[in-house]
Fold this protein.
Amino acid sequence: MINLKSLHKSYKTGATSLHVLKGINLDIEKGELVAIMGSSGSGKSTLLNILGMLDVADEGSYYLDDVLIENLNEKKAAKYRNLFLGFVFQSFNLINYKNALENVALPLYYQGMSRKERQKQAMEYLDSVSLKPWATHLPSELSGGQKQRVAIARAMASKPKVLLADEPTGALDSTTSYEIMGLIQKINNEGKTILVVTHEDDIAKMCKRIVKLKDGVIVEDKKIKQIIVK
Amino acid sequence: MFSRDSWQEIFETIRKNKLRTILSGFTVALGIFIFVILSGFGNGLQNTFKEFFVDDATNVLRIFPGRTSKPYKGFKAKRRIELENSDIEAIKINFPLFLEYITPRISRGASVKYNNKSDNYTTRAVAPSHQAAERTIITKGRFINEVDIKDKTKYAVIGRKVATDLFGGEDPMGKYLDVGKIAFKVIGVFQDAGGDNEESFIYIPYTTRQLIEKANDKVDQIIIAYKPSIGHSGAISLEKKLRLFLKKKKIIDPTDQSGIFIRNVADELKRNEDFAGVLETIVIFVAIGTLIAGIIGISNIMVFVVKERTKELGIRKALGASPKSVIAMILQESVFITLISGYFGLASGMVLLKNIGNALEEDYFIKNPYVDLSTAMISTFILIIFGAIAGYIPAKRAARIKPIIALRDE
C-alpha cells in the first residue's frame, strides 16, 4: 500500500541546512496497523507530512497504492488527499460552527457528491461510530472522545486508502484513549490501512507493527502481538 | 464555482458566523451610507447656490446711483447722484442695438392692510418689463402694463405670500389694499421661483410711486436687459459704455469709482458657478475619502476574517479542498456580504435623504439633497471590487498555507 525508498528531507534555515530524514525505507502492506514512534526531533512529523502529501521529499520515491506521488502541485495534492487519505488529529480539528453530521459530510462535499447523498452517507458513518443520536450537535456540545469519533467518521467518509492518525489519543484520558483505539482496531479489522503516530507505549502496543524513528532514520521496525481493546 | 451547493455552503457559513458577517456588512453599509449622505448634502448645497439665480434673468445689468468721491467741474466731492426718468429715456435712445428692455425700480417699505390684517411689505414700483427681469409668474389677473404707467393707476400686483397672509382663502382680485394709507386695487397675483422672499413683494406702477412722492421723477435703480446675442464680452463693453455715458450725463469725473454703480448679473452668476465648482470638488474629495475609508475598513475585516479562519481553511484543505475552492469560497462570501450590505447602505442613505428633503434648507442651506443613483451604484461596486481584492490577497495566502501548519496545536 505504501512504499518509501531512501526518502531524504532537509530544511534550510538561513545558511545552515537541517537534515531531518536521512534515507527512510518503509513498506506498509494493505490492512496493516502501524505505530510510528519517536521523540520530538526524530523526524516523525516530517514523515507524516510527506505521507499526508502536505510536504514533499527532496530525494527518494513515495508510492501510494502503486501511484508514484511526485510533482505535486496544490491542486493535485488536494485531490489525492481527498481520494487517498483520511486524517485524524490530536486536537480533533472539527469545524466548530458545523454540527457532527456536517463535519462528516465535508470531505464528500469536496468530492462533489450531492447534498442528499452525502448527508445519507455521513449519517451511516456517524452511526458506525455510534454517534447517530448526536448528529445535530455542535462540536462544543460533545465530549473529547465523541469529538475524536466524529473526526474518525469524517476521515473514513471519503473512503480513503490510508488513515493517518497524528497522536489521536494525545488529548484524551486513558479510558477514552482505549475506546478510540478500539474503534481504530475495528476499522483496521475491516481491512483499512492505518498509521498512528504516537509517543505512548501502551497505544503503540495496540497496533500490529511498531516503527521507531531516531534522528531521521528508522532504528527499529518490528511486528508485535497486538493488545486487543475489549 | 457558482454551483447551488457552494452557495448553500456559503449561506450556512454566513448564518453560523453572525458576528463576522455583521461586522463586515456593517463596515460596507456604513461606508456607502455616509458616502450617499455626504454626496447628497454636497449636491444640496450646490442646489442652494444655483437657486440664488434661477428666479432672475441673467442678461441683466443693474444701475445704482451713489455719491461721488472726486470733485469735478465745479462740483464738490460727495455729491449725491440721483437717477431720473430722463436717464431711462436717454439710455433707450443711445443704446437701441443693445437693449432688450429697460425698467426702473423704486423700492419702499409700507404697512399694508386688508380688513383687520396688516403687515409690513416692500412695494416695488416698476415698469411692465420688470416682469421679464425678475421672471415673475402671473397666476391670476395681469402684471402692470403701459396704460397703468401712463395713467398712474393705483393698481397693485401682489405676491402669493402677501395673498395668503392677508386674504387667507379669499380671492384678492379686485379687492382694495391699504398700502401706506393709500388704497390700491389688486389686479394680479404672482409667483416667483425665488420662494417666500420674492413672493412677499407688491408691484405697483413706478409713475404712481413718483406721483405719491410729490410728483418727482426719481428712480432707485435702473434694470437693463441686454440682448443675449451680444454675449458676455458684449455685456462687459456695454457696461463700460453705459458707465461712461451716465458719468458724462451726470457730470461725474470719468475716473471716479463712485457715483454710478453697475452690477452685472452674468458676472455674479459666473462667480457663483465658480464657487459651486469649488464646492463640487470638495464634495468629490470627501466622497472619495469616504470610499477609501470604506475600502480600508473592509480590507481590515477581510484580513481579520481570513486570519480567524486559518485553522478552518487548513481543515478544509486536509479534507480535499483545492486552493482555488478555498479562495473562491472566501471571495464569494465577501462579495455576497458586501453586495447585500452595500445595497442596504445605499437604500437607507437614499431613504434618509428623501426624508430630509428640504428640512435643512433654512438653517444649513441644503436644498433638495439627492445623490445620483448611478454614482451611488458605481461607488458600491468599487467597494465590492476592492473588498474582493482585499479579501483575495489574504485568501490566496491562506490557501497556500500547508494544512499541517494551519492545524498545528498552539
In short: The interface with chain B takes residues 45, 49, 52, 54-55, 74-75, 78-79, 81-83, 87, 89-91, 93-95, 97-98, 102, 106-107, 109-111, 114-115, 154, 158 of chain A (CB under 8 Å). The domain at 2-223 of chain A is CATH 3.40.50.300 (Rossmann fold). The two ends of chain A are 28 Å apart (CA to CA).
